[in-house]
Design brief:
By secondary structure, the chain is α/β, with parallel strands linked by helices. The protein contains 20 helices and twelve strands. Strands 1, 2, 3, 4, 5, 6 and 7 form a seven-stranded mixed β-sheet that branches. It starts with a helix and ends in a 15-residue tail after the last helix.
Length: 771
């Protein structure tokens, strides 16, 4: 019997125990059923009244918000404000109707119906407010300026007519006084409209008779027919202006009356009705609460007796389940803890049972087997990722090392005296080498993005400066193709600085702009940045790069952002490219929170666009870091450390051409031995990384450990340029990195930055010695 019971499902076991509790509780609770039902009904009524009251209070708050929004509408005239007011009004109407539907008390229903009538009237006034504002705005922004302009034009024509023929000076004086009076009217009008200076309105009314008197006096003078006609026209214009002015004043008065008197009065009346409804509800709730307390007291006594008996039974049941169920579950939990600690061989107890505990134990055993397989797969995946990283690092090193020699020697040859044909061949080699280097960088970028190793900076930068840099980078390329390059920034709110990763953003825009110029043979290439304010500190920036180039068909657009893909093979043959640029751009934009979209028509051009959210930044201080002057003039003593003879020869030639003294070391240990000499002055060390016996990192650590060399600047000169490599160099004590292939401008930049950071002091006279 006991064994049979232990094999029953846990639900049945628990059910049998609870049946005993419910039988006892049901017998004793039956007598209090009617009382509990009455109490429940009272609570439901209480809840309904409370919810309806809260809804009405929220409606009152919404009415106040609409009234505040109406005041804001008078400042901006935005259609979105009116739309928001209408939406809020509709929401209030629906909520008030719901409250009325749930209300049975006749007095409360009458109050709610009165509120609905008042709310409908308020909604009609919202529509009237919009019409009144539009009429007032038309009078102020169009009719009055138009009338003032016509009057000034007529006065100018009269003045010119008097100036173009011999006429008494007092004629021209009166004409000038007429012009000044009209200017006073114009100034007073705008002061009244914009600043609500009512004394200016009175001034306008006083100046009109004055001008009419001037016109009458001029008519008495000896004027020709055209001048008299101009005077008549001026008089008519004055009358027309007064009519427009009065209508504008009236429209403004009507608008303010509707807003501040009618609608405000309705909002106040609505608030009074809400307050009355609240007082009545409180009285009803107090009555319900009093009756409920009586019912609760009666029910509590009955339930207390039932509770005591039920607790006794539950204690007995709990003891049984603690022994039979809880301990078994704790044993399985302990197995899972050992699993988390890496013990995949732990035994799961209880697998022999036939109830849910046994099912759980068997499932835990299966999970342990699966976890072991997942752990093995994880180890293999980590090893694969490590091999991939090592492969990329080795590939970067092995490709950059020969490229360093090729591009460096080509650069030196380009600066020498060669024929035009030889120069053309050297330029071709240089271009091909740059293209290969670009491909290598694209592959490394794509690998870092896919591995999640890209970190984005968050610093303030100027959007206009970003566009200026893009224009400077690509203007010559566009000019050579006869294209018009336009870079435009549109910011209605005057946004200048934002916080984000300027370098990655420039990388995306440069790639899109380069493609636009590449695939456009005539017409225009345009970069536009537009800002939209989201809240006090956040903006949505819309970036668009458009061209009038060859365009992309619909089918090709589907695979446009896939790695190593282009519209078709003919594009690769004609324009070149690896098909990685747009893939990298798409992934960077996605990590920045946006999505690149493309619109294009064959033969008419393309437009690439994306939007990202950025915060407003602070203007850079005058003490911010300035652009480094890469024209470094001082002659340095440089120690080159590299196990590759071509690399040393190239660096030696470049540095000598720049006017520097050079010391050569063909491995890290040799560099350490050279720098042990305390009498030898060396300004900077260019250190290769991958070398036999002692690599660059070990050599750097050893050199920095020398008391007399702890401050010597060491720059990594390497083809290993991944993020983890840079971090390793920095931890070893290196001050920077020069990526292979090395260029003269890279050396100038590195030396200038060291000098700016005061890392290149002048050598003491007693320590100077020729290399």
């Amino acid at each position: 019997m006991t064994k049979h019971f232990s094999n029953l499902p846990i639900g049945i076991k628990i059910g049998l125990g609870l049946v005993l509790v419910f039988v006892v509780f049901g017998i004793q609770a039956f007598s209090s059923y009617n009382s509990i039902r009455t109490t429940s009904n009272a609570f439901k009524e209480f809840e309904t009244l409370s919810r309806n009251t809260v809804s009405v209070l929220v409606i009152d708050k919404n009415i106040s918000e609409i009234q505040k929004t109406a005041l804001a509408y008078g400042q901006t005239g935005s259609s979105s404000i009116i739309q928001k007011m209408n939406e809020t009004h509709e929401m209030i109407s629906k909520r008030l109707s719901d409250v009325l539907e749930k209300t049975s008390d006749q007095d409360r229903r009458q109050l709610l119906e009165h509120m609905i009538v008042l709310l409908n009237s308020y909604g009609n006034n919202i529509k009237a407010l919009k019409r009144s504002y539009e009429y007032r705005s038309n009078m102020i922004e169009n009719e009055i300026p138009k009338s003032l302009e016509e009057g000034m034009l007529s006065i100018e024509q009269l003045s010119n007519s008097l100036s173009n023929r011999p006429s008494p000076p007092n004629h021209r004086i009166l004409a000038n006084e007429l012009r000044l009076a009209w200017l006073e009217i114009e100034i007073a009008t705008y002061h009244f409209i914009n600043e609500r200076k009512y004394e200016e309105r009175k001034k306008v009314k006083q100046l009109v008779p004055k001008m009419k008197d001037m016109i009458s006096r001029l008519k008495l003078k000896s004027l020709d027919r055209q001048e008299l006609s101009e005077l008549e026209k001026i008089g008519a214009t004055i009358d027309q202006f007064i009519g427009v002015f009065d209508r504008a004043v009236q429209s403004n008065r009507l608008y303010l009356s509707l807003l501040n008197v009618v609608m405000a009065g309705q909002a106040h009346e609505f608030a009074q009705l809400v307050e009355r409804l609240r007082y009545e509800t409180i009285a009803q709730l107090e009555d319900i609460a009093s009756k409920g307390d009586e019912r609760v007291t009666e029910s509590r006594q009955v339930l207390l007796a039932s509770l005591l008996i039920s607790l006794l039974l539950l204690g007995m049941i709990a003891y049984y389940y603690e022994v039979s169920i809880s301990r078994a579950i704790n044993a399985i939990v302990g197995t899972f803890r050992r699993l988390l600690e890496g013990d995949f061989e732990a035994l799961v107890p209880g697998a022999e049972r036939q109830d849910e505990i046994g099912q759980l134990a068997r499932a835990a055993s299966a999970y342990m087997e699966m976890s072991k397989k997942f752990e093995d797969a994880k180890v293999k995946a980590e090893e694969s990722e490590k091999l991939k990283s090592e492969f990329l690092a080795n590939m970067s090193h092995e490709i950059r090392t020969p490229l360093n020699g090729i591009l460096g020697m080509v650069s030196l040859l380009q600066d020498s005296e060669v024929s035009d044909k030889q120069k053309h061949m050297l330029d071709t080699i240089d271009t091909c080498g740059d293209n290969l280097l670009c491909l290598l960088n694209d592959i490394l970028d794509l690998s870092k993005i896919e591995a999640g190793q890209v970190d984005f900076e968050q610093r303030s930068f100027n959007l206009q400066d970003l566009l200026k840099r893009l224009e400077g980078l690509f203007s010559n390329l566009a000019d050579r193709k006869g294209l018009k390059l336009t870079c435009e920034f549109k910011s209605p709110d005057g946004l200048e600085f934002v916080i984000g990763d300027e370098v990655r953003l420039q990388q995306v825009l440069s790639n899109l702009l380069s493609n636009a110029i590449k695939f456009t043979d005539s017409g225009e290439v345009k970069v536009v940045i537009e800002s939209r304010k989201l809240d006090r500190e956040s903006y949505m920036l819309d970036f668009k790069v458009s061209d009038t180039g060859i365009g992309i068909d619909t089918k090709s657009r589907e695979a446009l952002f896939e790695a190593f893909s282009q519209a078709d093979s003919s594009i690769t043959r004609r324009y070149g490219g690896t098909g990685l640029g747009l893939t990298i751009c798409s992934k960077i934009v996605f990590l920045l929170g946006g999505v690149i979209q493309v619109e294009s028509q064959l033969g008419r051009g393309s437009c690439f666009s994306f939007s990202i959210r950025l915060s407003r930044g602070e203007a850079l201080s005058h003490n911010a870091k300035k652009v480094v002057d890469y024209e470094f003039q001082r002659n340095l003593t440089v120690l080159i450390v590299d196990d590759n003879g071509v690399n040393i020869e190239l660096a030696h030639l470049l540095l000598e051409k720049m006017g520097h003294n050079v010391i050569e070391a063909y491995q890290g240990l040799q560099a350490v031995e050279i720098l042990e000499d305390q009498n030898l002055w060396v300004d900077v060390v260019l250190m290769d990384i991958q070398m036999p016996i002692m690599d660059g990192v070990q050599a750097t650590t050893t050199i920095k450990g020398m008391p007399h060399r702890k401050d010597i600047p060491i720059l990594a000169m390497t083809a290993n340029v991944l993020a983890e490599d840079r971090e390793r160099y920095q931890k070893a004590g290196m001050e920077g990195l020069i990526s292979k292939p090395i260029r003269k401008r890279d050396l100038q930049k590195a030396f200038s930055e060291l000098a700016e950071n005061q890392r290149l002091p002048e050598p003491p006279e007693e320590n100077k010695r020729s290399a």
